[in-house]
Design a protein that fits this description.
The structure is a single chain. It contains nine helices and seven strands. Helix 4 packs parallel to helix 5 (126-135) and helix 8 (187-208) runs antiparallel to helix 9. The chain is of the alpha/beta class. The chain has a seven-stranded mixed beta sheet, with helices on both faces. The protein has two domains: 8-167, Vaccinia Virus protein VP39 (Rossmann fold, 3-Layer(aba) Sandwich), CATH 3.40.50; 188-235. Helices cover 45% and strands 21% of the residues. The structure holds S-adenosylmethionine (SAM). Residues 10, 26-29, 49-52, 55, 78-79, 94-96, 104 line the site of S-adenosylmethionine. S-adenosylmethionine (SAM) binds at residues 10, 26-29, 49-52, 55, 78-79, 94-96, 104.
Length: 236
């Protein structure tokens, strides 16, 4: 991967960035994504945020190599601390766990003023993000799921608005599987949830061989519920 050729995953994230937006890419690492969309003329200006010194330095170096220092501003700091309220229109956060992405949004809530779109790509636990969006007045407007190098990635797109719009009465299920993804049910979706189901069945089998406790019973019930929800989604 490089600035010219993004990974399939980051390309899919880039596709959801609105034309002409001012972007903040949080946890940018090498800054490939902001450099790519600025170079392609898709966005006019971008901020690349990084909390760790090593990736911060590699982002700065990449921006210099590309000659983009006037259009991509690399800033060091935790989460949304690197931006001012009203400064950007779109925020991308990619390649982290869903719980961390939700924490970054929660801790930087006041910086979301003026932001029109969030494009979030969790490596795990997309449900943590769907819950955060729902509880904080963001409407899920689109989702994507794809396979790359044997890994499955989900992308969640949200805009300020009625959080209930994306969901039907079957909300518990849709929070886990994604309302858009479970309707589309593409190959990557089937692959992901078939593997999750097998994993939960394996854990359940291991649990059945251990001593009965209240905690174990609760864990078993939780797993059984998730397995039956998965079967229902995959079979319908
Ligand atoms: N976004 C790039 C991508 O998707 O390819 C890089 C993903 S990399 C796995 C995650 C990056 O997020 C790391 O460089 C890490 O230092 C950074 N990071 C983690 N927590 C962060 C936070 N709270 N604020 C800013 N950056 C963070």
């Amino acid at each position: 991967m490089n600035v010219e050729r993004l990974s399939k995953r980051l390309n899919a994230v880039a596709d959801f960035i609105p034309e002409g937006a001012i972007l903040a890419d949080i946890g940018s690492d090498h800054a490939y994504l902001p450099c790519h969309v600025v170079k392609a003329g898709k966005v006019t200006y971008a901020i690349a945020g990084e909390v760790v010194e090593g990736p911060f330095q590699s982002a700065k170096k990449q921006v210099e190599i590309e000659g983009l220092s006037k259009k991509v501003d690399v800033r060091k700091g935790n989460g949304l601390q690197v931006i001012e309220a009203g400064e950007v229109e779109c925020i991308t956060i990619a390649g982290m766990g869903g719980a961390l992405i939700a924490t970054i949004l929660e801790e930087g809530k006041e910086k979301l003023e003026g932001v029109k779109r969030l494009v979030l790509q969790p490596n795990i636990s997309a449900i943590s993000i769907r819950l955060w969006l729902f509880e904080n007045g963001w409407s899920l407007t689109n989702e994507a799921i794809l396979e790359e190098d044997g890994k499955i990635y989900e992308i969640l797109v949200a805009e300020k608005g009625d959080p209930k719009l994306a969901y039907t009465e079957n909300m518990e299920c849709e929070l886990l599987f994604g309302p858009f993804l479970s309707r589309q049910k593409n190959e990557a979706f089937i692959q992901k949830w078939t593997a999750e189901q097998k994993n939960w069945e394996r854990i359940l089998e291991q649990l059945s061989q251990s001593r009965q406790t209240q905690e174990k019973r609760e864990k078993e019930m939780e797993l059984q519920k998730k397995i039956s929800m998965t079967k229902e989604v995959l079979d319908r």
